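Lay summary. Proteins are chains of building blocks that fold into shapes, and those shapes determine what they do. In this project we predict the shape from the chain. Here is one chain we studied, written as its sequence of building blocks.
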Amino acid sequence: MSQLLTERGLAVSAFEPVLAAVLGNRPGEWGAAVLAEADALRHGQVQLRDWLYCLVRSPGTWARRRLIDAVGRKPEQLIRGVEDGIDTDEEPQGPAPLQLTASTVAPAVISALDAAERLARQNNWETITDAVLTLALLETADEVLLDLLTKWVKEEGMSALLAQLRAKVRNREGGAQPLFEEQGRLNPRAFSPSGWQFCRRMAEDASSLGTRKITTRHMLYTLLGNESGALCVGLALRGSDVKRELHSRLSGELARSGRKRNDTLELIRDAMFDPAIRVLEAARSLAEERGMPGVGELDIARAFVARQPGELMRLFSDNNRPDVAALGASLDSEEEEEAAAPPRRLTIKEIESKIKERILGQDAAVDRVIPWIKRLRFGLHRDGRPASVLLFLGPTGTGKTQLAKELARHVFGDPDQVIFLEMGQFKTKESMSGLIGAPPGYVGYGDGKLTNGLRDKPECVVLFDEIEKADTQVFDTVLRFADEGVISDPAGPVRDGRRSIIVMTTNAGQQWLWSHLKSNPKARENPAALSAGLFDAAMDELRQRNFRPEFLGRVDERICFLPFALETCRGITDQVLASELKKFAERKIVIEVDESARQVLARHAFARSLEEGARGAPRTINELIITPAIDRLAEHELEDGTYGFGRLVATRRGIDGIELGVEP
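And here is the predicted shape, written in a compact code that computers can read:
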């Protein structure tokens, strides 16, 4: 039985003082506020939701902020909605008990208090806090109550509340983390994912501008550089063109022509001026006030507007300055969704295995990439060059672009760690501004996909897709980047790509390959010779497009992707088919495809693979399985929404046909 609630009453001393006052801590009336909720609703026995009602009525509690303030409604509306949604006939009706004891509460209350004690003990809380109690109430609530609350704040709101409560309870560790570690380094544990990402971006911005010490202006430069950030959004809603007016002006002040990148700048106390440190300290206090375990970018924006309004306001002309108080109030009302925890770090063997599971039929290509992954993983960086520069050659649909994405997923831990540059967008030298941006005041300022990407993701895969489509003058910039690992933004910053993997893909040589295999079908049996011929044909085609010989000098590894063998097409069709059949199964529709039909699908995909690559497999399955299956459903659909049959069975018909039959 819970130590918090016995036959003698509620042990208010076990709760933190503020929470005890919310529940009722006057002498002789311990838990009176909870009893009052039960009495008002004529619950003959105190229910778990009575505790929740008590919390939502009190300003400042987690339950009040998330269940009431966040949705802009009143506590009475929530209480009425929950009560109307619960079958009260199952509960004894009548006056509430006169005392809150173990015998006057429902069993669910005892379970919740037991859970609260356990959470507090496991996470080193000396008393039961608001966060601990709220989490315990929600985690032990029955399905009916939890479903009603979820409908009230929507599923994403409930998920966010539970995640934030768990983070708050779990991150006790004796209070707030210090901003700096003993060695003077900025402490990553003091920040949430968004806050730490901001700090890394700030250091990158300051380094790229050649700065020796971070000022509040560098902090503002980074805040204004994040167009989706709360400060930029708040200013944009007030009519400001943040990028072309504010950020551009600040960039002109901070950038100095001829200044080199400062690669020695670190996130340490000595590399930051005191005003910048004080903004971070204020942000930490704001994060604690809103019950967050770490400082987020939103907290930094709020602290900056509160402590350094002059730095922001001076960027405006006198006749268009926003109201600082209103801007601060809008930031105070914002909520910040934090990113999920990063995935587990994979070993090299796991990376190789997972990539080969996703990239079928190109084991030789993967094997040539793995040594570069090893070099990067073991910290053997190359002075003044990117981690690797890889050229993927081969026909369309053979996995070149997909392999680049898999490298981002498994090497850098996130499929979004790709800067995807479709080189067909850069067919003229005027399109350079889309690649690296333009100087302040010119069209294209701040629009550089490569420079902005490296600012946000210095450790990533930079994918130049279909390089043969780019203007050669545009590609000269790419070659310099591949050679030196850094690239200059016309706005001033020098962006660092030396921790990135550069992948260039090309379909050059594809026409030669088609012609060669059509006249020599057995050429697929000699991959080495076919690879050599494809490489020579690709180089000839690139030279005809005015790619200069020094192009190859920047490339570390030239890797050919070859057309698929029949067994590879079978593996691809099996994967695609499993995914499609799962969609039908989720709708209670059973489709069975026997072995003979699967062989037909593989042969059709193989016949199309020379010109379509892996894309031929889903197209084949759609034509021979999915479309006929949908036609059968339309033919047999009944008024009650069923289909009048048990399953669909696909079998081979003739040499290369498939018949989809209906069975009871």
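What the prediction tells us: The two ends are 56 Å apart (CA to CA).
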